[in-house]
Specification:
Layout lengths: L2 H12 L1 H10 L1 E2 L5 E2 H6 L4 H11 L21
Antiparallel strand pairs: 1-2
Helix pairs in contact: 1-2
Protein name: Signal transduction histidine kinase
């Protein structure tokens, strides 16, 4: 996943303004108790950050990829 795809998903799934606020301020346990923004700045893969953020927010797999069916990811193991 590219950074641009990460931000597209943030806007589509979480909403533009609320999503950016969440990325900037929500401390996520799955990201070593960092915000998603801090994890990205530290070099974490956008896909890893997206999954950790979705896990923290209890977003079901079926809703994580928005309406774009081309972005459907294979199941995580």
């Amino acid at each position: 996943m590219r950074y641009s795809e990460f931000w597209e998903l943030v806007e589509e799934v979480l909403g533009s303004a609320p999503g950016r606020e969440i990325v900037a301020n929500l401390v996520v346990g799955g990201l070593e108790n960092r915000t998603a923004a801090a994890a990205l700045e530290d070099g974490a893969e956008p896909r890893t950050v997206w999954h950790a953020l979705c896990d923290e927010l209890d977003i079901p797999e079926s809703e994580r990829w928005g309406a774009d069916l081309r972005r459907v990811a294979p199941p995580r193991r």
